[in-house]
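At your convenience, could you comment on the folded chain following this short note?
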Amino acid sequence: MIIRSKAPLRISFAGGGTDVEPYISEQGGVVLSTTIDKYAYGSMRIREDPQITVTSLDYDIVAKYSMDEPLHHDDQLFLVKAVIHRLNQESRDQGLDLFLHSDAPPGSGLGSSSTLVVALIGLFHRWLHLPLTHYEIADLAYQIERVDLGFKGGKQDQYAATFGGFNFIEFSRDATVVNPLRVSADVLNELHYSLLLCYTGKTRRSDRIIDTQVKGYVERSEDVLRAMNELKQIALDLKNALLQGRLDDLGALLHEAWINKKRMAPPISNPHIDELYETARAHGALGGKISGAGGGGYMFFYCPFDKKHVIAEKLEALGAQAVDFNFDQHGLQTWEVG
């Protein structure tokens, strides 16, 4: 028997950065995001011996080790090993063959690392019949990344990948609440028709950007505090514009969100990203932003329908790559083969 899983990557419209501690506990954060039809995939085959084999297309490696082998933080597969150590306690006499890959590279800004963890948890959830709700799966993914391994980052990716769809997510010290948005089909179709997703050509290390942002907040930088608070309000305004079908307003609000996001930490943007953004705006885009922590990866723009193809051509001339996508409404999915 083979168990498979897939979890969707996400794009975040506004609020990213307010989902990071200690801002969550002290101020409360919000994020507006949607998942898209780009996925992290996992396949699991159960072995009769205690050996574990992991094949990762993203890192182009095949690794073999035993269940009792300790974690090493310099190992490219430490995320995988951390999930196994957390969830395979009851079946340590059985080994696993794991096959993993993602539609976007690590450092893409689409939440690929957290989404892979969610997909891995989905495999164990299915195999071991673990009594986990969606909230518990998302929180477990967060605990493995941020607590067990100490990776810097926020909370939005794990919840987006698990729940799927358009969500307005609220973060506080005591709870995370995922509010699914009932967006009409007409609005979704028009939004998809108007959004241009492109790959900047470079990935980045999000932890360093997040370190800079957190440092600014902890030191009570007035500019950082104001930017983060304004991003929360913009996320709420964007949610209302989306639900009411005011998509041109949504485009304008994306521009405001990008301006405030850049104020949180200088590494969020760079000359190449600024050139792409300014070129898109100069040729008609109402707004846009980098997806994720910034510094590289994917960007998206809200474009008038008759300008989208022109903007795509101009960005590709600067080295970016337009990417076809659609929205995903399902979140984490698992199934069995054979």
About this structure: The chain has a mean pLDDT of 90.
